[in-house]
Write a structure and sequence with these properties.
The protein has 12 helices and 8 strands. By secondary structure, the protein is of the alpha/beta class.
């Protein structure tokens, strides 16, 4: 497949849908990937944080990538998360992603230990050039506990197969510094609540979890920003923030965005709400609040578009 890698636009970080028996729901994943591309997204990203990548078993990871590749039907690239504490596992998964048809890898530094930046650089310089696919450097220190600082990103971006950056750090000042150091490198931004501000600070596109639920909203937001239609962009950004405030914030404790998106997809008839352990499935009043919020936001999106 020769579809270009995302430099801009929206690349949804897809959930990993499960059946009631905690098996991969391949049909649901294929449909989510297809729906994303139909909505105008630039690609899809699997096995990321929203996809519960670190909780997915090795065999299922291969199946996730293959299902997404089938879903995009050759129309857009599939990016595969490489979120591994073990370098050996990262090499193995990279090869399997290549064989399954992924177009690029999204690499976090090895997590668990608090690794200093010089050791992150050394590990990356040993691993990344040997991988079979282009790489996005993935900065998400809230989960890895190992940041990729702007100066580290600038050095690693010189490696021959590093294509871009996926920044979920949430720090606009560091984003602006990274952009100053790397004026030409694609930077795809994660935290959708401030996508408009991130684009002004130097991001070139979005990897926004809410695009699982409302892909047309995020595509419209991205296009409004690109066209400098600021009043419309602010209106759409306000809708995107409602997703965070009214859907993600409902689940008590833990990564509420995972619960919120999976429950929302269930409400939309697109996937079941089941999550991987150690998370537990949501029920009761929080589940009902998400259902109400999804219906309200869906109507607001339809009215806005």
């Amino acid at each position: 497949m020769n579809t270009p890698l995302p430099r801009n636009g929206v690349t949804p970080p897809l959930v990993t849908p499960l059946t009631a028996g905690c098996q991969l729901d391949e049909a649901a994943l294929e449909n989510l990937a297809r729906r994303s591309i139909d909505a105008g997204c630039a690609g899809v990203f699997v096995l990321g944080t929203t996809g519960e990548g670190p909780s997915v078993g090795r065999a299922m990871k291969r199946d996730v990538i293959a299902a997404a590749v089938r879903g995009v039907e050759g129309r857009a690239p599939v990016l595969a998360g490489l979120i591994e504490a073990s370098t050996e596992d990262a090499r193995r998964l990279a090869g399997e992603a290549y064989e399954a048809g992924a177009a690029a890898l999204v690499w976090t530094p090895p997590f668990y230990f608090h690794v200093p930046q010089h050791e992150v650089i050394a590990a990356a310089e040993r691993l990344l050039p040997a991988l079979p696919l282009p790489v996005y450097l993935y900065n998400i220190p809230v989960f890895t506990k190992v940041p990729l600082e702007p100066e580290t990103l600038a050095r690693l971006a010189k490696l021959p197969n590093v294509f871009g950056i996926k920044d979920s750090g949430g720090d606009l000042a560091k984003l602006a510094r990274t952009r100053a150091l790397l004026p030409e490198t694609p930077i795809l931004w994660g935290p959708e609540e401030i996508q408009l501000d991130a684009m002004a600070a130097g991001a070139t596109g979005g990897v926004n979890g809410g695009a699982n639920l409302f892909p047309t909203l995020f595509v419209a937001l991205d296009r409004a920003i690109a066209a400098q239609q600021m009043e419309r962009a602010r209106q759409l950004q306000a809708l995107a923030k409602r997703i965070s405030d009214e859907i993600y914030a409902v689940a008590p404790g833990g990564p509420g965005f995972v619960h919120g998106i999976k429950c929302g997809l269930d409400d939309l008839g697109l996937a079941r709400p089941f999550v991987f352990e150690p998370l537990t499935n949501l029920s009761g009043a929080p589940r009902a609040r998400i259902q109400s919020a999804v219906a309200s936001i869906l109507q607001a999106v339809e009215d806005a578009l």
